[in-house]
């Protein structure tokens, strides 16, 4: 594989710390690399160095001549005064970009709910982010650097982005380097993982799951090596301390060896640990939503149109003690409204909400409202203001901790304890917010997009904490990995109703695709009827379109033939679905380092998916004939 770009002996310092020291790495054609590490260790900085956005203090980055590099920053770089169309396609004529299948796919996948001729400055932060991503993806790049591309994307958007990136280049072309906390995306897209820590970059083969396995093995071997080293160190120190007079006669090489052993003590990486905290007692009754409907008034409603919009319709949900449920749905489907019904912030238009007497609800919100009153205070003072000591664990494993010790278990360093809350990073604020909520001892915990600003290590620590959570847990998140990891049941809000998902997120995506197909079929049928009406009685006999649209329903042999074809298409679609599922399994089992084999399997998969799309189109055509 051809070399695209590389970094040699990179060194970078900020005023307070060294970010990278003597880092050497390379990117080749066909590389699909995920970058993981703790917040603040330099993941985004690494992308900027490799993309040429930032100059290193030492070393160099070399790029092969003619290589086109594209990068998605975390910062908002889109001109707020431009329209969405100008920001995405620039001055390209509409007939040009509309004829490009890749451009149409990007616009449909990312900007379906964004006004095409709207002003970028009037959009929400999430919409602006998707506009920037769309503008990048329609370009032709040899190397793509994506910094948190899954932020502000829902489950469907993330699945679309994974499909787009996997099909963007052939197996041995192009290169992708992505920083994201979405572990499902890392597993789906990446064939290699770089871990950024302690001023170095450590490479691993495979996606997130493979990285975790290799890291566990690395840590196990390091622990065994450290145990041997510590034992040797104790012996050497004991030998060195056998009296001052004897020390001068000891062999100098033994003293030098012992000193070197002590100097080579590796830096301790921040432990991220938080054991089970106390929880208020929860009775048999939690929260019951009984035939609940919620309607909101429509702003600037058109005369004759409905004045209200129904978000939830005759919904019933009985939340059980200890229930662990993930709630899925597109933006605007009513997820936040559902949670606010549970907390009591929203009252139902019809139906009723019944709450147990012992229920104590806490919400980890997206707005960090819990920290608003503490912005000028030091981190340690915030926790100390709640209590002077805390007990974690239970029974014989119970340990009493000071506020500082508790914070250190949650990944804060001793220097950060004296930092004002306003100066913390997004991930640190998120950790502190979670801790303050847990110290209230709730028995119903609601997590509303809890993964924002958290790195993969912190996510794993929170998931470990939630595994032992004895209360009721409700999670709304676009992070598929988190939802499937910490909840036992998934539900979706579809057309205002709550739908159980026995097969989890996969079933939700299937239902959404079916909704899109049904909507397209309904729109096509409506257009056909409208055309038929327009060209019916008053149209000339030569108007073929009008004649076809207003043709009577099929009868006799023609109808039986159409029904037979529809039945055959159903069987072929079922067979193709099984083949596609089998092909996905083959890709997952295949050697991830065999790029040629993976490319062939990917080509086979795309061929099957194309066949399925053609059959679905034909199925719609035959169905319309039968309904006509």
From TrEMBL:
<feature type="region of interest" description="Disordered">
    <location>
        <begin position="520"/>
        <end position="562"/>
    </location>
</feature>
<dbReference type="InterPro" id="IPR003593">
    <property type="entry name" value="AAA+_ATPase"/>
</dbReference>
<keyword id="KW-0547">Nucleotide-binding</keyword>
<feature type="compositionally biased region" description="Low complexity">
    <location>
        <begin position="520"/>
        <end position="534"/>
    </location>
</feature>
<keyword id="KW-0067">ATP-binding</keyword>
<protein>
    <submittedName>
        <fullName>ATP-binding cassette domain-containing protein</fullName>
    </submittedName>
</protein>
<dbReference type="InterPro" id="IPR017871">
    <property type="entry name" value="ABC_transporter-like_CS"/>
</dbReference>
<dbReference type="InterPro" id="IPR032524">
    <property type="entry name" value="ABC_tran_C"/>
</dbReference>
<dbReference type="InterPro" id="IPR051309">
    <property type="entry name" value="ABCF_ATPase"/>
</dbReference>
<dbReference type="Pfam" id="PF00005">
    <property type="entry name" value="ABC_tran"/>
</dbReference>
<feature type="compositionally biased region" description="Low complexity">
    <location>
        <begin position="546"/>
        <end position="556"/>
    </location>
</feature>
<dbReference type="InterPro" id="IPR027417">
    <property type="entry name" value="P-loop_NTPase"/>
</dbReference>
<dbReference type="GO" id="GO:0003677">
    <property type="term" value="F:DNA binding"/>
</dbReference>
<dbReference type="GO" id="GO:0005524">
    <property type="term" value="F:ATP binding"/>
</dbReference>
<feature type="compositionally biased region" description="Gly residues">
    <location>
        <begin position="535"/>
        <end position="545"/>
    </location>
</feature>
<dbReference type="GO" id="GO:0016887">
    <property type="term" value="F:ATP hydrolysis activity"/>
</dbReference>
<dbReference type="InterPro" id="IPR003439">
    <property type="entry name" value="ABC_transporter-like_ATP-bd"/>
</dbReference>
<dbReference type="Pfam" id="PF16326">
    <property type="entry name" value="ABC_tran_CTD"/>
</dbReference>
<feature type="domain" description="ABC transporter">
    <location>
        <begin position="287"/>
        <end position="520"/>
    </location>
</feature>
<feature type="domain" description="ABC transporter">
    <location>
        <begin position="5"/>
        <end position="230"/>
    </location>
</feature>
């Amino acid at each position: 594989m051809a070399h695209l770009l590389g970094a040699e002996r990179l060194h970078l310092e900020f005023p307070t710390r060294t970010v990278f020291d003597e880092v050497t790495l390379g990117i080749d054609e066909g590389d699909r690399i995920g970058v993981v590490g703790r917040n603040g260790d330099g993941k985004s900085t690494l992308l900027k160095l490799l993309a040429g956005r930032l100059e290193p203090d030492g070393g160099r980055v070399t790029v092969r001549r003619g290589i086109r590099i594209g990068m998605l920053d975390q910062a908002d770089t889109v001109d707020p005064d431009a329209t969405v169309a100008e920001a995405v396609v620039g001055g390209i004529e509409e007939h040009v970009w509309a004829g490009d299948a890749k451009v149409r796919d990007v616009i449909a996948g990312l900007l379906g709910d964004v006004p095409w001729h709207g002003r970028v400055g009037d959009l929400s932060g999430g919409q602006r982010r998707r506009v920037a991503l769309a503008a990048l993806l329609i370009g032709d790049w040899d190397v793509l650097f994506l910094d948190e591309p899954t932020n502000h994307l829902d489950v469907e958007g993330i699945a679309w982005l994974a499909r787009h990136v996997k099909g963007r280049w052939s197996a041995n072309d192009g290169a992708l380097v992505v920083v994201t906390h979405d572990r499902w995306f890392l597993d789906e897209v990446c064939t290699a993982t770089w871990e950024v820590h302690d001023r170095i970059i450590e490479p691993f083969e495979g996606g997130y799951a493979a990285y975790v396995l290799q890291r566990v093995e690395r840590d196990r071997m390091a622990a065994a090596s450290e145990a041997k080293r510590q034992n040797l160190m104790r012996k050497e120190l004991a030998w060195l301390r056998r009296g001052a007079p004897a020390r001068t006669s000891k062999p100098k090489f033994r003293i030098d060896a012992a000193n070197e052993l002590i100097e080579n003590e590796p830096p301790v990486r921040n432990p991220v640990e938080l054991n089970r905290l106390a929880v208020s007692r929860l009775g048999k009754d939690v929260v019951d939503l009984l035939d609940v409907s919620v309607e909101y008034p429509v702003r600037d409603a058109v005369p004759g149109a409905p004045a209200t919009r129904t978000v939830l319709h005759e919904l019933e949900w009985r939340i059980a003690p200890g229930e662990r449920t993930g709630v899925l749905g597109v933006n605007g489907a009513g997820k936040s409204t559902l949670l606010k019904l549970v907390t009591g912030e929203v009252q139902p238009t019809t139906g009723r909400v019944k709450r147990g007497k012992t229920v104590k609800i806490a919400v980890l919100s997206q707005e960090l409202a819990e920290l608003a009153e503490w912005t000028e205070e030091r981190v340690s003072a915030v926790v100390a203001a709640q209590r002077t000591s805390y007990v974690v664990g239970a029974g014989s494993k119970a340990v009493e901790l000071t506020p500082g010790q508790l914070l250190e278990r949650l990944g804060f360093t001793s220097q950060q304890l004296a930092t004002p809350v306003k100066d913390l990073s997004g991930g640190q604020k998120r950790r502190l917010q979670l801790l303050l909520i847990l110290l209230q001892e709730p028995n119903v915990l609601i997590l509303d997009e809890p993964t924002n600003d958290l790195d993969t290590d912190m996510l794993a620590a929170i998931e470990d904490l939630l595994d032992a959570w004895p209360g009721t847990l409700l999670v709304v998140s676009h992070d598929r990995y988190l939802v499937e990891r910490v909840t036992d049941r998934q539900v979706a809000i579809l057309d205002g109703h709550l739908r159980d998902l026995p097969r989890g997120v996969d079933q939700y995506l299937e239902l959404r695709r079916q909704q899109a197909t049904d909507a397209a079929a309904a729109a096509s049928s409506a257009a056909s009827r409208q055309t038929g009406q327009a060209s019916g009685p008053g149209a000339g006999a030569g108007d073929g379109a009008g004649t076809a649209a207003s043709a009577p329903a099929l009868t006799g042999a023609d109808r039986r033939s159409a029904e037979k074809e529809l039945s055959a298409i159903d069987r072929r679609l079922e067979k193709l679905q099984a083949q596609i599922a089998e092909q996905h399994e083959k890709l997952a089992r295949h050697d991830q380092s065999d790029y040629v084999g993976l490319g062939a399997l990917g080509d086979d998969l795309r061929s099957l998916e194309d066949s399925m799309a053609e059959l679905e189109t034909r199925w719609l055509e035959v169905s319309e004939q039968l309904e006509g």
